[in-house]
Amino acid sequence: LFRSSYFHNQVTPGRFEHGYTIILPGVEGRSFANSNLAQGLKNAGYPGAIEEPALANPKAAQAIQGEFLERFREVADAHDGTVAGTLALFEVARLLEKLGRGDESAELWDRALAAASGNPGLRGLLDQRRAEAFEREEKWDQAASAHESAGNVTEYPLRYWALLDAARCAAAGGEDGRALDLYQRVEREAPELNVPPHLRAQYRELQ
């Protein structure tokens, strides 16, 4: 299933004859967002080699993540209650999880969501970011619920994409009936949406 694990690099000799694309990680290291991009290239028929490397030195990666953790914490404190401060809180929570300190991140998630309560679009975005954190831990039920929560925010411009993510996560967790209901909801409420081929294929398999 799409995005139920990190992308498997496509680096066979035959592919190198047609080009070589490297999707470099950011401070967060390997991510499902980058894996989605790599998978999209493969699904679209790109014939070249595709590689999504991890940060080369785990100790250096941890040091970099720790440095950015403090930078984001400073922004969050300096701009408390603003969009910038709320997004910085999210980054702090995400980096804490990357550093194996997930027990410290729960309070920050709650603070970020509370701060976004008066901004529906931001609330939808944070719900999706939290869903992605659940995905990294393969907590598919919680990921699907967080994506669906974003999809229920009518002012969130990416709401139907969030519902597609909810369907994908539900399927990854073995909840085929829930996934089918979500796909059908998107088809019913947003029939003009250009659903990616791999998700259309999954929808057909569930019918």
Task: Write the topology of this structure.
Elements: H1 13-16, E1 20-22, H2 32-43, E2 49-51, H3 58-78, H4 83-98, H5 102-115, H6 120-136, H7 140-151, H8 159-172, H9 176-189, H10 197-206
Parallel strand pairs: 1-2
Helix pairs in contact: 3-4, 4-5, 4-6, 6-7, 7-8, 8-9
Instruction: Quote the average pLDDT.
Output: 81
Counting DSSP E segments of at least 2 residues, the number of strands comes to: 2
**Most strands sheet:** 2 strands, parallel
Distance between the termini: 16 Å
Return residue spans where pLDDT drops below 50 for at least 5 consecutive residues.
1-5
Evaluate the radius of gyration.
Answer: 18 Å
The oligomerization state is single chain
H/E series, N to C?
A: HEHEHHHHHHHH
* Class of secondary structure makeup: mainly alpha
Description:
This protein is an all-alpha fold and 207 residues long. The protein is built from 10 helices and 2 strands. It has helices spanning 13-16, 32-43, 58-78, 83-98, 102-115, 120-136, 140-151, 159-172, 176-189, 197-206; strands at 20-22, 49-51. It has a two-stranded parallel ribbon with strand order 1-2. Strand 1 (20-22), helix 2 and strand 2 (49-51) form a beta-alpha-beta unit. Helix 3 runs antiparallel to helix 4 (83-98) and helix 4 packs antiparallel against helix 5 (102-115). The longest helix has 21 residues, at 58-78. The protein starts with 12 loop residues before the first helix and ends with a helix. The model is unreliable at 1-5 (pLDDT under 50).
